[in-house]
Amino acid sequence: MFKRLSLRLTLLTVVLLVILYSITSLALYGIIRGFVMRSIDFNLRQAAYRVANTAVLTGIPSFASTGSPEINFVLADNGIYTSIADPDLASALENRLNRPMDRPTFFNFTYQGEHYRVFDLPIATGSGESAYVATVLDDTQTVRAMSDLRSVIVIVGLFGICGATLVGFILSERMLQPIRRAFQRQLEFVADASHELRTPLAVIQSNLGIVMEHTDQTVEENLEWLNNAHGEARRLAKLVQDLLTLARSDSERMPIERRPVTLDDLLERIHDLYETIAEMRGIELSVRAEDGLVVLGDRDRLHQLLVILIDNAIKFTDAGGKVEIAAARSRNQAVLSVRDTGIGIAKEHLERVFDRFYTVDTARSRHGEAKGTGLGLSIAKWIVEAHGGRISIASEGIGKGTTVRVELPLSPKRAAGWDEGDVTGKSEA
């Protein structure tokens, strides 16, 4: 599909280029040729009238009066007078001029491979006999120059078409690469989503099917199957919500409300929420943040970002381990980091952990949680990029912990017309 589209775009580019080049070339050639021919015709006409006037006034035509040594003349008035040195050329031209003309006429004349431009001017005589004066210019070089110009235009056009075809194909391929990647991501997204949705639906259906087969039993007796179905239904609801978030982010329909957010207050709020969970699992959760770090962003989305990172850190850290949340200033950026002493990630997986539905293995979780959907870090990456920041993950390998680093641009105080009362974080904590 994309190959055909690339060929069509290339063909359209070449056709448009040919049309534009043809119009431009024809216009340029026409302008140059028209200018040259008008100049030649003007000189021939002026010379013809001067020869005719001198012949009428003095009876002797004057070649010098033409003002141009390149122009010869033939005068027929009770005899033939000519300034053409070649008698054969003069004779051939006289035979051509013997055709009766009733008005001034320009015509082209070719003799022995040479090209001549001729102006034939009928003149009146007292005896009523036909007479004329013709001026002749050898414009062979001009004709050849115009022919060379046509050849150059055609050759340049052919090379241009070949080059445009090659360049157009390359550019169309490069232009379609983001579309191809997006389309491929969409196909993978739909396939992965279908796979992930199918599993909880199958579990729900199978457990409810068991319950329906035991209609003679009480709800308490079927509680195990109902709990299984309920747990998968909750997992399915979370998966659908994550999919909706990513779908909206792809279509740029997910609004980001930008207001000043104080990071140290936000981190303290997150610490309060997860401290109890960490203690229950024997994990030390600590926060270390500089005061006065303010970013311009959506507090709810930043809260969601930290929840995703801390939830992963706690999930993959054994009892007795540590999870540290830190926030510091680095020039004009706020650097957030979530570091754990958990089981870490193999280096070959680091480049793909932000891909949608990508999970390393189920053994990473030490607390019996259900396998994740692989969407959390994808959502985290979208949140960071939506705020104009960058996110990265580092790990020395299995058993050596993981560090997630987030860089967000700091908001300059009062640069956007806000004051301390506008800052969110502390009042909502």
From TrEMBL:
Top-level taxon: Bacteria
InterPro entries: HATPase_C_sf, HATPase_dom, His_kinase_dom, HisK_dim/P_dom, HisK_dim/P_sf, Sensor_HK_Regulatory, Sig_transdc_His_kin-like_C
Alphabetical list of SMART domains matching this protein: HATPase_c (SM00387), HisKA (SM00388)
EC top class, as a word: transferase
Nucleotide-binding among keywords: yes
Residue spans crossing the bilayer: 9-32, 152-171
EC number: 2.7.13.3
Domain Histidine kinase: 192-412
The keyword Lipid biosynthesis is assigned to this record: no
Catalytic activity from the UniProt record: ATP + protein L-histidine = ADP + protein N-phospho-L-histidine
Molecular function per GO: ATP binding
Keywords on record: ATP-binding, Kinase, Membrane, Nucleotide-binding, Phosphoprotein, Transferase, Transmembrane, Transmembrane helix, Two-component regulatory system
Pfam families per record: HATPase_c, HisKA
PANTHER family, alphabetized: HISTIDINE KINASE 1, TWO-COMPONENT HISTIDINE KINASE
Protein name (record): histidine kinase
Organism expressing this protein natively: Alicyclobacillus sendaiensis PA2
